[in-house]
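= Tokenised fold =
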Amino acid sequence: MSPSPTKPRQTGTDVYARAVELMAARGYHGTSLRTVASAVGVQMASLYYYFPSKQELLMEIMRRTLTDIIAEIGAAVEQAEGPTAKFEAGIRAHVEFHANRRLEVLITDSELRALEPRNRVKIVKLRDRYGKIFLDILEDGCEQKVFDVPDTRVAMSALLLMTSDVVMWYRPEGRFTLTEIAEQYVRLCMQAVRAA
């Protein structure tokens, strides 16, 4: 379907946004490039200009999501002093990012298996970089005796999994604001890692 003469020229941003909506709802394998092009209102040739393949489109969603979360949580942590404040800032920012970018996060978390092997390696490296932010904080906190966990890697995985589930149920119209939800998660996580 061609865009009408009065319709603003579509961009890669439009394609990206519609692809995120469709893949979050239908999954990677249930979403064709033709469906994305139709939803945006562009010809397939125009779509290929921005994303030469569906695999590259999935890679862009995952790469952008992980790059952004690394930057945002990294910045929040850097502004805090000491392992306790860094941990709280990291968890707070993690929850808020997951709620605000829920569709992209859903795709990034659920479609790893859809990546080609070489692409999977790249995305796993980015995920590991993100996890290391929290792993370093936990290890520093344990060294300073403010945290006490049996294994920092297990704790990191468990805490990030627990706090990531906000993507499944958070709604802006719910009974708690996002700030209130983030603070509850911070409190729960601190209770889990704080030394007696």
Residues 54-193 form a domain with the Tetracycline Repressor; domain 2 fold (CATH 1.10.357.10). The CA atoms of residues 19 and 73 lie 25 Å apart. The longest helix spans residues 117-143.
